């Protein structure tokens, strides 16, 4: 560990160029994981493309990746400031061969998990270059093979489960499910909804990266929200964190006889995207509704039936 621990990433970013370089070189030379996490987070919040709008979820995910990569590098004899030409590829390869540690899971780490770990390691090296500690880019020639199975296949949208689970939810939990499954909100967005965000038939959503969007709400969602009293003085409608919301919703799924179908809140958001696409046949409109910046992202949220173009090709 370094002698003087910088507790705040902003304080680290405010160091002089020389002091920052010394701190980063020392941390990398001694494999000081805690300090390297701070260097990465200081870079992400002050010098990356999103800067201070970088989400806490991204920072936490990248911190987890750094805490995985640095001990591996130490164990493998990799010099962080002067890594070998093939060290990035070696790390990717061992991640792909690593057994999954999830409860009830078998096989190797999911491709998405591998990609997240590598993204965090790449962020670390961008941070070290930002700090003036090294020019190394060990992951420049270390591609992460994509998962050959589309996400919409691995984690498809809920279908009839939504209507069957709702009667087993108390009103606030039902409102949360409807916000995800009918209004298309991310669970983090839904948990952050306040009474003042609801204006008539529309909801102001505070999305990723500080983006705002206005989402139209159906009657069912509006009715569920209007009847909810705020749980905090600031008007918040929910006081659960992600783990607490997950626990409550998984219990509701089990009570409805769909315990095996519970796949997290993301499948509820895909339910919304899939239903809207079937009604509009327009990925652009669905993407705007879900708050996507790319239609390519939206395509991963829509389950298209195998015979979707049967009528169109009938008379070819």
UniProtKB/TrEMBL annotation:
Sequence ranges assigned to domain Core-binding (CB) in this UniProt record: 42-129
Coiled-coil spans in chain: none
Record domain Tyr recombinase: where: 152-315
InterPro entries membership: CB (IPR044068), DNA_brk_join_enz (IPR011010), Integrase-like_cat_sf (IPR013762), Integrase_catalytic (IPR002104), Integrase_recombinase_N (IPR010998), Integrase_SAM-like_N (IPR004107), Tyrosine_recombinase_XerCD (IPR050090)
Keywords for the protein's UniProt record, in alphabetical order: DNA integration, DNA recombination, DNA-binding
Pfam family, one: Phage_int_SAM_1
PANTHER family: PHAGE INTEGRASE-RELATED, TYROSINE RECOMBINASE XERC
Protein name: Tyrosine recombinase XerC
Highest classification ranks of the organism: Bacteria, Thermotogati, Deinococcota, Deinococci, Deinococcales
């Amino acid at each position: 560990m370094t002698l003087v621990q910088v507790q705040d990433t902003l304080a680290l970013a405010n160091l002089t160029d020389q002091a920052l370089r010394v701190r980063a070189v020392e941390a990398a030379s001694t494999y000081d994981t805690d300090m390297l996490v701070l260097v990465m987070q200081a870079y992400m919040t002050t010098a990356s493309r999103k800067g201070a709008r970088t989400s806490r979820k991204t920072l936490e995910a990248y911190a987890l990746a750094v805490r995985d990569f640095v001990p591996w590098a130490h164990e493998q004899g990799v010099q962080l400031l002067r890594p070998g030409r093939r060290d990035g590829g070696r790390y990717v390869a061992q991640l792909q061969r690593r057994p999954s540690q999830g409860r009830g899971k078998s096989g190797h780490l999911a491709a998405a998990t591998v990609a997240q770990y590598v993204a965090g390691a790449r962020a670390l090296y961008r941070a070290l270059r930002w700090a003036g500690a090294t020019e190394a880019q060990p992951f420049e020639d270390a591609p992460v093979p994509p998962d050959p199975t589309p996400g919409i296949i691995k984690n498809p949208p809920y279908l009839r489960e939504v209507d069957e689970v709702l009667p087993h939810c108390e009103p606030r939990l039902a409102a949360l499910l409807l916000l995800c499954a009918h209004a298309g909100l991310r669970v983090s967005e839904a948990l952050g909804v306040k009474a003042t965000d609801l204006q008539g038939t529309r909801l102001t959503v505070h999305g990723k990266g500080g983006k705002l969007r206005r989402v139209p709400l159906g009657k069912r969602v509006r009715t569920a929200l209007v009847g909810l009293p705020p749980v905090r003085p600031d008007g918040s409608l929910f006081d659960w964190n992600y783990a607490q919301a997950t626990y409550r919703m998984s219990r509701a799924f089990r009570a409805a006889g769909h315990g095996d179908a519970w796949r997290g809140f993301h499948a509820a958001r895909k339910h919304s995207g899939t239903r809207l696409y079937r009604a509009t046949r327009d990925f652009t409109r669905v993407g705007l509704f879900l708050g996507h910046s790319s239609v390519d992202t939206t395509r991963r949220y829509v389950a298209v039936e195998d015979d979707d173009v049967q009528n169109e090709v009938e008379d070819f």
